[in-house]
Q: What sequence folds into this?
């Protein structure tokens, strides 16, 4: 019984890894080889020629960079902005706090997808179409990050903050030297989710950018795929190049990423 | 004034007032960056959308006021409602399967085994892929003649050598393919949520149940499942709302076809706005989408409130 369970588990894991392994093996095959059965995909001859070709002849490396650059900017700015607002809502006393908090909560109900069409017009009026700024700025307001971070900030005891105040430290010092370090797991978890969200963001870049020097991966990949003819080698090379950086990041930070995702569920 | 009864409470009342104002100014500084982007890129487009939806509004911005014209057109637009229905089908297909699959995977990875890390990695790895990569893998896997799935079926003789399954050119098979790809690509997040919930289960409860002679099946039904109920509700609602916004994997795998029979509502809105150059009508449709998602959120809120009151 235990063995059956183990074999079934391993089979399931194999099914999950299979498409990825298929992608990797096909990507190192020589182009134009006949594929009659599944086994032909794993058989030699192997070649990395297509990698060189794709890296040199297409803008894929630039798009990988764009995706990273935008995701890093969006993540850093979103977290700083949300943490600042969460801190104010959690630890600073001011008038109309309830109303401000309500305004943030209301943002949860506005799905990004439903405002894309008018957002296009707004961005156009502001001259943000086809710019990095236009790809970054509209993604920065994240009510959910504020609410999650605020709930973690609420858990930081006020005595700690008072001791900083006695030393003459202001809100900025409290924010940077107490709040952020003490809630690092929560901050990291929101950062991971924001990064993956930005990495996968498709609709907004798709609408707002036409200059292929500004493409991100989700937009760029389809434009390359329409050109393949012979077999899957080139598409799989494109897929692999697009995925390797994020796979490596995942394998290195696996523990933290899994923990970050599970943390987001606790307060969510 | 920050943080409770402060160290400087001995200050005069006039000072206290000044301090309150100072705290207000500080709060403003901390909140300003968020509200700047929030108002510019969320609130303002929302209001702008109302205006646009009352006009015949094209990409090059030739406008003509049409009042509620776009909305009355929408009520009679069978293609629009069909696309809303397709998104609904997708929600109905993926949500229950997602719950079952993510829980099943979590149970596998929760066993004390040296392979735990392998399971965690293999179940979560697809989730870090870009949506475009995952969708194209889906397209290639379900391709007839050259696709991975048909080739595997040929290999194990489940499918006769001269026969092919055209996964992406028949409506019901397309839904199977789209659902399978989506589950594979996105199950990782929910799997992790279930896994961490399982790892927080009180071990004593299980031991007590085992001492009383409960079978594994009984333990699962009577203890594990009820304890997982809150996380299950959360995953379910997040899943419903997220699935309703499906677009790219369907667009890449079937293009919304065959005969627009799998086209989701977001694709229809996008085509209307950017292919047919009708931002006004697309905005009006966006508002319907908005109210659908709003209703789903309200449902979730009410549901959670009632459950928590129990």
A:
């Amino acid at each position: 019984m235990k063995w059956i369970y183990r074999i079934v588990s391993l089979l399931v894991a194999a099914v999950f890894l299979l498409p990825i392994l298929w992608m990797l093996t096909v990507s190192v095959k020589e182009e134009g080889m006949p594929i009659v059965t599944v086994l032909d995909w794993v058989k030699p001859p192997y070649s990395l020629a297509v990698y060189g070709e794709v890296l040199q002849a297409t803008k894929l490396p630039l798009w990988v960079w764009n995706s990273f650059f935008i995701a890093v900017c969006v993540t850093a700015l979103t977290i700083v902005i949300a943490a600042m607002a969460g801190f104010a809502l959690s630890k600073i006393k001011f008038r109309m706090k309830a109303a401000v908090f309500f305004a943030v909560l209301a943002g949860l109900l506005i799905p990004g997808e439903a405002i894309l069409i008018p957002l296009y017009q707004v961005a156009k009026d502001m001259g943000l179409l086809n710019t990095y700024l236009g790809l970054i700025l509209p993604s920065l307001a994240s009510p959910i990050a504020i609410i999650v971070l605020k709930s973690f900030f609420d858990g930081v005891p006020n005595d700690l903050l008072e001791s900083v105040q006695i030393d003459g430290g202001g809100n900025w010092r409290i924010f940077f030297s107490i709040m952020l370090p003490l809630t690092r797991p929560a901050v990291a978890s929101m950062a991971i989710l924001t990064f993956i969200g930005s990495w996968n963001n498709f609709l907004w870049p798709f609408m707002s950018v036409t200059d292929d020097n500004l493409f991100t991966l989700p937009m760029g990949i389809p434009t390359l795929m329409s050109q393949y003819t012979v077999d899957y080698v080139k598409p799989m090379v494109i897929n692999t190049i697009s995925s390797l950086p994020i796979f490596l990041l995942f394998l290195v930070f696996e523990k933290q990423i899994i923990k970050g995702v599970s943390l987001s569920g606790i307060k969510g | 004034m920050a943080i409770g009864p402060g160290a400087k409470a001995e200050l005069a009342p006039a000072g206290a007032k000044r301090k309150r104002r100072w705290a207000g100014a500080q709060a403003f500084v901390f909140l300003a960056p968020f509200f700047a982007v929030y108002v510019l890129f969320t609130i303002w487009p929302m209001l702008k959308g109302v205006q646009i939806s009352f006009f015949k509004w094209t990409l090059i911005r030739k406008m003509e006021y049409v009042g509620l014209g776009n909305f009355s057109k929408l009520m009679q637009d069978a293609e629009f409602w069909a696309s809303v229905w397709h998104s609904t089908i997708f929600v109905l297909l993926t949500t229950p399967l997602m719950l079952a699959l993510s829980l099943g995977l979590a149970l596998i990875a929760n066993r004390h085994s040296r392979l735990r890390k392998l399971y965690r990695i293999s179940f979560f790895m697809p989730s870090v892929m870009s949506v475009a990569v995952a969708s194209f893998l889906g397209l290639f896997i379900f391709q007839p003649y050259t696709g991975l799935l048909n080739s595997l079926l040929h290999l194990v003789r489940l499918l006769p050598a001269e026969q092919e399954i055209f996964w992406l050119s028949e409506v019901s098979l397309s839904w199977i393919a789209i659902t399978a790809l989506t589950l594979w690509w996105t199950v990782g997040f929910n799997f992790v949520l279930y896994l961490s919930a399982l790892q927080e289960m009180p071990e004593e409860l299980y031991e007590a149940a085992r001492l009383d002679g409960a079978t594994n099946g009984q333990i699962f039904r009577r203890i594990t499942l009820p304890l997982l109920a809150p996380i299950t509700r959360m995953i379910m609602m997040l899943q419903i709302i997220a699935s309703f916004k499906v677009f790219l994997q369907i667009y890449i795998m079937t293009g919304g076809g065959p005969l627009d029979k799998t086209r989701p509502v977001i694709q229809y809105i996008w085509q209307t706005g950017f292919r047919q150059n009708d931002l006004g009508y697309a905005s009006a449709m966006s508002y319907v989408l908005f109210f659908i998602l709003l209703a789903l959120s309200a449902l979730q809120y009410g549901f959670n409130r009632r459950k928590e009151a129990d």
Chain A has a mean pLDDT of 86. Residues 88 and 94 of chain A are 9 Å apart (CA to CA).
